[in-house]
Amino acid sequence: MGLKLKTAPSEYPVTLNEAKAHLGIMSDIFDSIVQFLIEVATTQAEDITNRQLMSAVYEMTMDTLPERFELKKPPLISVDTIEYVPDGLENYALLDQSLYSVSDYSEPARIVKKPNSSYPPIANVIDPVRVTFTAGYADAASVPKPIKQWMLIRIATLFEHREEVVVGVSVSPIVNEYNAYLISKYRVITL
């Protein structure tokens, strides 16, 4: 199963003005740094919560079409298409919506095959099933306030501690979980 971001959000849960107000910055001199930190905090919040904060389009691929499966990155806004490669063919076809239901009462949302229906035979090719869906909150005002507050605190921490060490009479590493976290998502694990 694969998950790929197709269309990234055009805005962030925290605005530049909100972050600057939280930081107590009146000047525009740090705008590019603060905007970058907003982007970093957004990515971290999404990684930690496994949520999509602002509306974005994803494509999930699978080897089979299970009777029940979850759509990652809640909250779900819509299931745009479910496509499959029919057995004996090479191009994707649209799966009839009458064959499945979307349950978004739980997180993550689920796709469930309707009772007394059957899915068509699927070709034995790489990623024969493709689900395109839109996830995230409708707008920044819909993002839960605790997540936004966490982001503001994270932005302030990152802004105040833009270096790995503090130089003074002695040199001491700043021991904070976020320093390690910034790089840990890039770790490649091999089997």
In short:
27% of the residues lie in helices and 25% in strands.
- The helical percent reads 25-40%
Number of strands: 10
Which architecture name of the largest domain does CATH use? Orthogonal Bundle
Shape: elongated
Q: Which parts are unreliable, with pLDDT below 50 for 5 consecutive residues or more?
A: 182-191
Strand content: 25-35%
- What gyration radius follows from the Cα positions, in whole Å? 21 Å
What strand line-up does the widest sheet have? 1-2-8-4-5
CATH fold descriptor of the largest domain: Hypothetical protein yqbg
CATH C-level name of the largest domain: Mainly Alpha
Largest sheet: 5 strands, antiparallel
What value does the average pLDDT take? Answer: 87
Structural class: alpha+beta
From the N-terminal CA to the C-terminal CA, the straight-line distance is 17 Å
DSSP helical segment count: 4
H/E order of the elements?
A: EHHEEEEEEEHEEH
Q: What is the domain total for the residues?
A: 2
